[in-house]
Amino acid sequence: MIRWLTALGLAGLASPLRAETCRLALALAMDISSSVDATEDTLQRQGLAAALIAPEVTEAFFSSPLPVALAVYEWGSRSTQRMILNWTMINTQTDLLTAAETIQRSVRSDGDSATAMGQALAFGATLMQQAPPCLFQTIDLSGDGANNDGFQPASAYRHFPFEGIVVNGLVINAADFEGEVHLIPYFENNVLYGPGAFLEVAQGFEDFERAMRRKLERELTSLQIGVLQDFSPR
Asked: What is the pTM of this model?
């Protein structure tokens, strides 16, 4: 059994020496690059806040006795990464509501940024080092464009501490199906990382809330070892 878990990169789950305080450390990363206008940014923030307190997502948060640790940050150019919600343990529905309200009230830090996915992922990996001890760690990167600033995601995965971290993606397909032609494969080939990594697609920013609800529910309820698939770059 230990050997099987080791092959999946999850041997720590079998060790009695670890004392995890939560089942999942979940960091949500929102795109604020210049391709996202003010209205679209509002749709993201309001959509994320609404998704967090949707009935099916609330149920998923509290589907286990172990809580979830939640953090949210925004990303754009190489120098534009900012915390919106620092690590918060979601023990109660009040905790979840407070987190959603914090996101809803937040204001973007920069409206004229490039798209630096590598730095966004590096920031997330560093943030995970500050997370409470959890059974699983997931970074959730949303975006409406490919990397055009700084180093590529592959460089982040090579040079920053991603061991044990899964990176999921949410493509915001906002440009006449450009996402289906270019951006979806880009996320699949460059962004998804680790066992069980998956991609959700929002058909425009108006669809962001629905896609986020679906993705959060899946992230919070599908931590089943038997179905893990490794998307780590070879």
From this structure: 0.85
